[in-house]
Amino acid sequence: QVQFVESGGGLVQPGGSLTLSCEASGFAFSRYSLNWYRQAPGKEREWVAQVNSAGTLTYYADSVRGRFTISRDNIKNTVSLQMSSLKPEDTAVYYCRAPGLAWGQGTQVTVSS
After folding, report:
1. Between the CA atoms of 25, 29, 33 and 39, what dihedral angle is there, to the nearest 10 degrees?
2. 3-class DSSP state for residue 31?
3. Is the dihedral of CA 67, 47, 96, 91 positive or negative?
4. Residue 12 forms beta bridges with which residues?
5. CA angle 84–87–91, rounded 5-degree value
6. CB contact at 8 A, 24 and 79
7. pLDDT by residue (tens digit) across 19-52?
8. Sign of the torsion angle spanned by Cα atoms 32, 59, 9, 90
9. β-strand 3-7 against 18-25: which pairing, if any?
10. Is the C-alpha dihedral spanning 81, 82, 85, 86 positive or negative?
11. Residues 74-98: pLDDT tens digits?
């Protein structure tokens, strides 16, 4: 059974930092690229970042490039998202996912003073 369990969300002030983690299981983790997505209240889910299967290539949405860093550990089957210089518009539920596989429950990030 494919499973993604996101964690690390919380309340942070503007300009602050937060690191999200995602533990994956039930599939050949090291063969898949991995993505982070987010969904803000009243908005559609949007793609945030991607790392390739080897962890050597990363891609980012324009809105987060330079502030967020995606990485993965193919031994521990985890993917992380380091977020810095956070803005109120980064407030959303964040999800990790491999292409075509099931969604997890997500983790809430709230950026507010």
Report:
1. 10
2. helix
3. positive
4. 111
5. 100
6. yes
7. 999 999 999 999 999 999 999 999 999 999 999 9
8. negative
9. antiparallel
10. positive
11. 999 999 999 999 999 999 999 999 9
